[in-house]
Amino acid sequence: MEIDQPYLFVEINDKNFNFLVVKYDENFDFKIVHSETVKSEGISDGKVIDLINISKIIKEILNLIENKISFTFKSATIISDQNTYKCINVSGYKNLLGSQVTDDDISFILNDIKKIILDNQPNESLIHLFNSKFVLDKNNIEKIPIGLYGEFYNQHLTFFLLPKNDLKNLKLIFNNCHINIERVVFKNFADGINLINKKRISKSIGIININKKRSKISIFKNLSFIYSDNFSFGSDIIMSDVEKVCSLNPNIVKNIFKNISFENLNEKENDYLDENFFQGDKFRKISLSHLDEIISARIEEIINLIFSKNVNLKYLKDENIDIYLFFEDENMFKNFKKSFASKFPKNKKVFFDKLDKDENLGACIGSAELIGKGWEREAIPIIQTKKSIISRIFNTIFG
């Protein structure tokens, strides 16, 4: 990868294969040269299930791009949306006995924890490692406290691991396309980078995506990616509840969710579902307040499972953290924002958005920023030169 030469990013997810070509300048800023998005096949929950078909599609798009820009790619960064990763938070320490914190102390902690993690996870590959917190003599420090004196140093780390077989499948796909994978980036991390840069966020945030069939959460604490999880339910489960409890067919329920705003029902508690919604089906007298109770109960359960009562997030209870909530279903964004917001703890600010169908390149753009300039809290230092990105040394500080 060189200055002013095309570099390739490919995102693989259940809906699309997204391709982004950029060029970096001597300041490691990038400009977009070309992009393509095609409907994906052979992927389920981000996992490869049809290697041959995926390889065929990617090879075709690569040939198309290479012909358009008159360049042949040898390598790429891949953005993975797999749900099989593991997120492990651990901490290590060093007794300083009044001495300074040194590079060797940091390397000792990282090497020690890395060995323990990988020895106990022999079937996993390390994809990301983040510095989560630095504590010197019980005081939280903003950055690695090299050079400071103390008695006891504690460092918190977050590991993201991917099953080796899943990584092998990704490598095999791109080997079939004559592309070497330089790096794998998790989509949740890349999306977070893109959002943080776009919104100029400087504090801790939780990003929650509520899709139709699945949901996921990512936590960035002081810009360190410290937690991520996926859930096998989405907004469709709310509609299913209304169908079952009220014995309504799916088309009626879809029409209700599309055309009725449940944001201000307290002002009209005695209103009932209009006959027009039944479209030839037998009319049944159903109050809007009853519908609202069903919907509200399921929304509360969703938010509790993902965030409020998630046992893995107990330590965030009193943290100053903002929530960014994204919906795949436009009707959820339009008619249920207030219902969702009311289910979060009152000390959390909630910001809403919908997933823009036209904005498929967010994770690729976040990854381009990562490869160009790195991420302060990721444990991968970058030695920068003025002329060539290839001369930068990407090497984990744990050896």
- Residue windows where pLDDT falls under 50 for at least 5 positions: 381-399
The fold-level CATH name of the largest domain is Nucleotidyltransferase, domain 5
Question: SS-based structural class?
Answer: alpha/beta
The CATH homologous superfamily of the largest domain is termed ATPase, nucleotide binding domain
> Beta fraction of the residues?
25-35%
* Oligomer description: single chain
- What is the number of helical segments per DSSP (H or I, 4+ residues)? 10
- Rounded to the nearest angstrom, the radius of gyration is 24 Å
> For the largest beta sheet, what order do the strands appear in spatially?
3-2-1-6-11
The CATH architecture assignment of the largest domain turns out to be 2-Layer Sandwich
For the termini, the CA-CA separation is: 23 Å
Query: What is the number of E strands?
Result: 16
Mind describing the biggest β-sheet? Answer: 5 strands, mixed
What coarse outline follows from CA principal-axis ratios?
globular
What do these coordinates show?
The structure is a single chain. The protein is α/β, with parallel strands linked by helices and 399 residues long. The protein has three domains: 7-83 and 165-199 and 359-391, Nucleotidyltransferase, domain 5, CATH 3.30.420; 86-163, Dna Ligase, domain 1 (2-Layer Sandwich); 212-354, 2-Layer Sandwich (Nucleotidyltransferase, domain 5). 32% of the residues lie in helices and 29% in strands. The chain has helices spanning 51-69, 103-120, 164-176, 187-199, 236-246, 250-259, 288-308, 330-335, 337-341, 362-373; strands at residues 7-12, 16-24, 30-39, 43-44, 47-48, 75-80, 86-95, 124-136, 139-141, 152-163, 180-186, 204-210, 215-221, 224-231, 321-327, 350-354. The strands form four sheets. The protein has a five-stranded mixed β-sheet with strand order 3-2-1-6-11, sandwiched between helices. A five-stranded mixed β-sheet has the order 14-13-12-15-16. A hairpin with a 5-residue loop joins strand 2 (16-24) and strand 3 (30-39). Helix 1 packs across helix 3 and helix 4 packs across helix 10 (362-373). The longest helix is centred in the last third of the chain and has 21 residues, at 288-308. The radius of gyration is 24 Å and the shape is globular. Residues 381-399 have low confidence and may be disordered.
